[in-house]
Amino acid sequence: MKIVTYNVNGIKARIDRLVEYLTEQQPDIVCLQELKSQDDGFPIDRIHEAGYGAVWHGQKSWNGVAVLAKGKVPVERQRGLAGDPEDEHSRYLECEIDGLVVAAIYLPNGNPQPGPKFDYKLKWMDRLADRARALLAEEVPVVLAGDYNVIPNDDDTFSVRAMQDDALMQPESRERYRALLAQGWTDALRTKFPGGKVWTFWDYQAGAWQRDAGFRIDHLLLSPQAADRLRDAGVDKEYRGREKASDHAPTWVRLR
């Protein structure tokens, strides 16, 4: 079973690339982020034509997450995180497919920091940790898949110096990510590539793709029951180099 997290950076602008990926790779489950579309603008007909069912949680111009499943419609469990009734951002969608629980996550960027956007990021991570703890208590296979907007380690970026002031690499962001792992989650890509130097994002600016100046911010965290089934993990990097591609590459885990 191949489970993918993919920040598409605009579902309407990138629908041809997404359908191309679904057709060529045939993943079983895909968690999408940054739809940048309201619910009624989601291109469900194109998704159906590719052979996938979907649940989505959109928002005008910003954010937005979705879960796709090959040949079936995911069963929605929860949208949004508890703990802040005023938070209307579409950043969390939790579904179940054939006994596997998956969550599509689009964690706040947090820039500029310090400031209210960074404060929101940290509070959102605390709310995610609460939900993650509850999911672990269910003792079922769970995959928390998404764009976490956190560079966990120095070897997860092309340049520590270039990113040192960014919200993605601040000690507070990293501390919360490590605390999440300490609950009992397995970082699938890190497990497969313990030496780092594996990127999932390359900025559109300054020739980042051409220079391979990227970093790792797309993560798939596995509950112990899912980690026991871990076979492989990787990045479908070539899709970042295609015409009108997202600035993220599809990142995946394969479970037994």
TrEMBL record:
Q: Where does Mg(2+) bind?
A: N7, E34, D147, N149, D247, H248
The protein's matches in InterPro entries, at most eight in alphabetical order, are given as: AP_endonuc_1, AP_endonuclease_F1_BS, Endo/exonu/phosph_ase_sf, Endo/exonuclease/phosphatase, ExoIII-like
Which Enzyme Commission numbers does its entry carry?
3.1.11.2
Per its UniProt record, the required cofactor names are: Mg(2+); Mn(2+)
Could you tell me which Gene3D superfamilies the record lists for this protein? Endonuclease/exonuclease/phosphatase
Note the Pfam families from the entry. Exo_endo_phos (PF03372)
Q: Which keywords fit this entry according to its UniProt record?
A: Hydrolase, Magnesium, Manganese, Metal-binding
The similarity annotation says: Belongs to the DNA repair enzymes AP/ExoA family.
Q: Which PANTHER family match?
A: EXODEOXYRIBONUCLEASE III
What is this protein identified as?
Exodeoxyribonuclease III
